[in-house]
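Good morning C.,

I know you're traveling, so I'll keep this short. The sequence:
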Amino acid sequence: MYLADRVDGLVLQAVQELFILIRRAPRDKVLEQKIRQERQEKRKQKLALEKKLRDCEHALERYEAEVLRCLDGVSGFSQEMLSRLIAKAETDLRIARQEYAAMLAQEKNEQELTGQMKDCYRQFCGWAGEFEMASLARKRVILSELLEKVEVGKGYQVAVHVKTSYKQFLELCRPEEKTQSTQVKDTGEEVT
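The tokens, ready to paste straight into the viewer:
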């Protein structure tokens, strides 16, 4: 059995440490870094899809050019083999075009996602400023929005798991520690 007040105290301590961490980080730097990372990742995906699309188009062109050589009798491919290769190349090209179209649609939504990320970050920073002075009821509301789950282990070892939408900012504040949660022992020291 665990004492609720003791567990509450440990959870509050862990969350206060998270809020101290987010308050120490320069707001604009963290947010801009996250947005830049997202854009770089999207750019890499787009370039990879563009390359795949060009490769598929080139393969189809090569096989179609080989058809003339096959008709002249100078090709190393049989008609059946060329037919299968062309069909496969057309399928690959169609799939590549669909993937590229989906990526373009995703790019259009990127601005909306960036706005949502900014709102999420503002909310997180707002909670960081409000948390210390908030009533216990308000703290619990904040915790329900911020935390995915809290695990209590032997010896009152508490593991606090932050929701993914907020965890991304904590990872930017402390990139050397890519932890999934913050753990606090009864002694109050943080455990990685």
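Safe travels,
E.
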